[in-house]
């Protein structure tokens, strides 16, 4: 993953872009989530999160809950919990069963110490001031509570970056083209323990490495296309690059039988 430039950093955290384009609905998020269906080993991420909450009672808030994957699982596994989903984007909340509310991770509409657990799954890299959001998570969680966050390592899905740059280079006629916007670079699994450690005495990292293997270009093309909200950040015609990537994938799969992507996600379990 390349270091984000100031322009990329601004685009990854831009409120209007997040709410009106990237997460206006769950179309692009769902395409990114779907890639993990082809991962080996398969991790039951919502189940792993539910496990971490086994000692938690009362209220649980999912900050940046997106399309409600984690809320849905907790609703099934833990009917005893009072769940609340919060997200910056009203559009993505539309299909999530309540209670849900529009809220910013940097200003949570919750009383101090009022929840037993807070989730911040794959979302802190979108927050303009990450330390401020970490302070808010710490503030709302009870003294004996838990915060579960998630993100990916800097080298996560490096093959997709490589594919993008090859496709972009072909479109531009320049050999290797410019890198994609690095969505997760502001809060990687490498950086996360120090950032969370500012508020939490114990931060445990659970690594979830795996390999996605596809024999059809569809899921990878859909993943690349899911960056369309940032199309203007790519210094290359976006649709043409996605289509060129499809052709490269078709050739690769015809030649080698499959296309593989190394995934390096993880969860962070934070206690005081
Ligand atoms: C990559 S999605 C992750 C969704 C969900 N947590 C998951 O893991 O499936 C990031 C989500 O964070 C939300 N988000 C971005 N910035 C936010 C902020 N400052 N406060 C609250 N939510 C935010 C987005 O609208 C989006 O739904």
Structural features, described:
By secondary structure, the protein is α/β, with parallel strands linked by helices. The protein has a single domain (6-271), classed as 3-Layer(aba) Sandwich (Rossmann fold). It is built from 11 helices and 8 strands. It has helices at residues 6-13, 15-22, 27-34, 45-52, 69-77, 90-93, 130-140, 158-172, 192-197, 218-225, 238-256, and strands spanning 39-40, 59-63, 82-87, 100-102, 115-121, 141-152, 202-214, 259-271. It has an 8-stranded mixed β-sheet, with helices on both faces. Bound molecules: S-adenosylmethionine. S-adenosylmethionine (SAM) binds next to loops.
Assign the CATH superfamily.
Vaccinia Virus protein VP39
Q: How many beta-strand segments?
A: 8
* pLDDT averaged over residues: 97
What is the string of helix and strand elements? HHHEHEHEHEEHEHHEHHE
Radius of gyration: 19 Å
Cross-sheet strand order for the largest sheet: 1-7-8-6-5-2-3-4
Give every kind of bound small molecule, once each. Answer: S-adenosylmethionine
Number of separate structural domains? 1
- The CATH level-2 architecture is identified as 3-Layer(aba) Sandwich
Q: Find the CATH topology.
A: Rossmann fold
CATH class: Alpha Beta
Q: Tally the helices: what do you get?
A: 11
Distance between the termini: 31 Å
Outline: globular
> Portion of residues in helices?
25-40%
Largest sheet: 8 strands, mixed
């Amino acid at each position: 993953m390349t270091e984000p430039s100031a322009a990329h950093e601004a685009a990854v955290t831009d409120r209007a872009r997040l709410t009106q384009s990237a997460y206006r609905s769950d179309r692009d998020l769902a395409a990114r989530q779907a890639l993990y269906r082809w991962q080996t080993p398969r991790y039951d991420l919502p189940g792993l999160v539910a496990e971490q909450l086994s000692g938690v009672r009362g209220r649980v808030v999912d900050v940046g809950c997106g399309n409600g994957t984690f809320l849905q699982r907790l609703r099934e596994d833990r009917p005893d919990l009072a769940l609340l989903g919060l997200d910056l984007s009203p559009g993505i909340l539309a299909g999530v069963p309540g209670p849900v509310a529009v809220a910013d991770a940097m200003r949570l509409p919750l009383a101090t110490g009022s929840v037993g657990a807070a989730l911040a799954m794959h979302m802190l890299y979108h927050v303009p001031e990450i330390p401020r959001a970490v302070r808010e998570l710490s503030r709302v969680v009870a003294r004996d509570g838990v915060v579960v966050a998630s993100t990916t390592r800097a080298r996560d899905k490096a093959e997709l970056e490589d594919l993008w740059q090859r496709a972009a280079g072909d479109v531009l006629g320049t050999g290797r083209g410019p890198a994609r916007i690095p969505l997760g670079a502001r809060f990687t699994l490498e950086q996360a323990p120090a950032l969370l450690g500012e508020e939490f005495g114990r931060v445990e990292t659970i690594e979830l490495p795996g390999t996605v293997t596809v024999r059809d270009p569809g899921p990878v093309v859909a993943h690349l296309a899911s960056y369309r909200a940032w199309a203007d950040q790519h210094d290359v015609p976006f649709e043409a690059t996605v289509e060129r990537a499809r052709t490269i994938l078709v050739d690769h799969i015809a030649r080698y039988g499959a296309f593989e992507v190394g995934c390096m996600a993880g969860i962070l379990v934070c206690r005081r």
